[in-house]
Amino acid sequence: VGDKPIWEQIGSSFIQHCYQLFDKDRTQLGAIYIDVSCLTWEGQQFHGKAATVEKLSSLPFQKIQYSLMAQDHQPTPHSCIISMVVDSIMGFHHMFLLKNTNDAWVCTNDAFRLALHNFG
């Protein structure tokens, strides 16, 4: 089987770093977003680094016990990486679009949705 493809290594490392920042100090999440980043959190849209960090910092819970059951990563045609996380314990899906900007991987698009809703 060999080593994982580079996009899987980058995606997995990014997700680990993101969730560590989320639990440790959400104000530091600005390091992984850029001014044109977009966040969709439970259907609410936030545009830009400042609005994204403000939303994530204002969430009422401080820490989450993660159980990242599945991660999928794919390369995109424009040298980006799309990453999706499924957490079965907390019941969420989280998608990131990652782009290499100035030799650093940043999140340009972030979409989060709890999977516990009854859509019926």
Overall structural class, as computed from helix and strand content, comes to alpha+beta
CATH class: Alpha Beta
Strand order of the largest sheet: 2-1-6-5-4-3
Q: What is the overall number of helices?
A: 2
Largest sheet: 6 strands, mixed
Tell me, rounded to a whole number, the average pLDDT: 89
Any low-confidence stretches, pLDDT <50, length ≥5?
Answer: none
Give the termini separation: 42 Å
Q: How would you summarize the topology of this molecule?
A:
Blueprint: H1 6-24, E1 33-41, E2 44-47, H2 49-57, E3 68-75, E4 80-87, E5 92-101, E6 104-114
Parallel strand pairs: 1-6
Antiparallel strand pairs: 1-2, 3-4, 4-5, 5-6
Task: Explain the overall architecture.
By secondary structure, the chain is an alpha+beta fold. It has one domain: Roll (Nuclear Transport Factor 2, Chain: A), CATH 3.10.450.50. The chain is built from two helices and six strands, in the order H-E-E-H-E-E-E-E. A six-stranded mixed β-sheet has the order 2-1-6-5-4-3, with helices on one face. A hairpin with a 4-residue loop joins strand 4 and strand 5.
Quick description:
This protein is of the alpha+beta class and 120 residues long. It has 2 helices and 6 strands; from the N terminus they run αββαββββ.
Structural key phrases:
NTF2_dom; 120 residues; six-stranded mixed beta sheet; alpha+beta; nuclear pore complex; Nuclear Transport Factor 2, Chain: A; Nuclear transport factor 2
